Amino acid sequence: MKKNSSLAIVDWGIGGLSIYQMIKSRLGEVPVLYFSDTGVTPYGKMARAELIARLNVVITFLRARGVTHLILGCNAASTVIPYLETRGLKVEGVIESAVRLTLRNRPHRLGLIGGRRTVLSGVYRNRLAKHGIRVEQRIAQPLSGLIEGGDISSAALHRQCQRILAPLKNSSHVLLACTHYPAILPVLKQFVSHNTCFIDPAGELVNRIKRWPVTRGGADRFLTSGDPAQMKIAAAKAFGCRLKHVDRLAF
């Protein structure tokens, strides 16, 4: 094991904090460098080439700071992993974990909500079709922006959830294909059948990386290309995660 091996989580915003919190609860002694990239266009709205270029810039930055293991806590980012310059890094996205967990749940009517890039990529539709599972997908792009602004309960949020979930209301399962969405699970549940189960892959992902040989002990760091004050507010409101200090980076 390299002495300087270290773990980072990258997401467009605070959604990856749902993964961070699970790492802390299960692997608490592992220090995490968390990077929120809200200073740029939401990853879910980027064209593929733009997203690849941006993530390669972020990866170069992290590699220069000794990061050896990287979690892309964003479904849109995870769709382009094969095209990233990851040499020397161990990288894990959320898609493999989400597919595996979905298959274990054996849904007979599966819905999915996610960002534009995730849905249009067809990655879930294609992967699940190989196992005979059809998925009805809905673009839920407005939700991550609302949550990023600290909104987890407004009338506007409720209207968006109702509109997005209307065609999925009788699903047996709904896959949360964005790490922001667990923050509004109580709202989402209001607009589906009481028998509908929501699939959150965060726990499965943490199980997959728990044997990574990363350095134990040390402090967590939180960085953003956006507004540190807003990140603190949103993290507290959405996930009850109180960040003492967030550094702003411009690149």
Amount of helix: 25-40%
Q: Spans with pLDDT under 50 lasting ≥5 residues?
A: none
Question: Biggest sheet, open or closed, and with what strands and sense?
Answer: 6 strands, parallel
The ordered H/E elements are EHEHEHEHEHHEHHEHEHEHE
Instruction: Count the beta strands.
Output: 10
Q: What this model shows, in words?
A:
This protein is α/β, with parallel strands linked by helices. It has two domains: 7-93 and 204-248, Rossmann fold (3-Layer(aba) Sandwich); 95-201, Rossmann fold, CATH 3.40.50.1860. It has eleven helices and ten strands. The protein has helices spanning 17-26, 48-64, 75-78, 95-105, 116-121, 123-129, 141-148, 155-165, 185-188, 202-209, 228-239; strands spanning 7-11, 32-36, 69-72, 90-92, 110-114, 135-139, 173-177, 197-199, 221-224, 247-248. The strands form two sheets. It has a six-stranded parallel beta sheet with strand order 4-3-1-2-9-10. Strand 9, helix 11 and strand 10 (247-248) form a beta-alpha-beta unit. It is globular and about 45 Å long. It starts with 6 loop residues before the first strand and ends with a strand.
List keywords for this structure.
251 residues; alpha/beta; Rossmann fold; 2 domains; four-stranded parallel sheet; 16% strand
What topology does this entry show?
Blueprint: E1 7-11, H1 17-26, E2 32-36, H2 48-64, E3 69-72, H3 75-78, E4 90-92, H4 95-105, E5 110-114, H5 116-121, H6 123-129, E6 135-139, H7 141-148, H8 155-165, E7 173-177, H9 185-188, E8 197-199, H10 202-209, E9 221-224, H11 228-239, E10 247-248
Parallel strand pairs: 1-2, 1-3, 2-9, 3-4, 5-6, 5-7, 7-8, 9-10
Helix pairs in contact: 1-10, 4-10
